Amino acid sequence: MAEIRKQIRPGRRFRITSYSIHYTKLWPPRPFDQQPESYRNDVLPDQPQSTILRVSIEAGTTIGWERYTGINGLRYGIDVFGASAPANDLYAHFGLTAVGITNKVLAAIAGKSAR
Hints:
This protein is mainly alpha-helical. It is built from 7 helices and 2 strands, in the order H-H-H-H-E-H-E-H-H. The protein is 44% helix and 5% strand.
């Protein structure tokens, strides 16, 4: 995940577009799941999905991240087996770049507000 953090820094872009984001590192998720409920609710507040958009970005599979993003959240990762190339090439191929993720999130937000 550290290598993804170097690539994905959408917070700067979101500040420019007036959306606020909260970055939380949950990897590995098991220690997070073992924290007291009050801590988990502080990090991932129980809010209606109409008021919040949760996004996970993972250098591997997105399987299981819906537990944290919610069913309507966005999950970005590499859901194929055997992809092999330098990390930056893989991220570009799968759209795991700051620009790629930011554009997808902004499009999702625009789609939600258009309803």
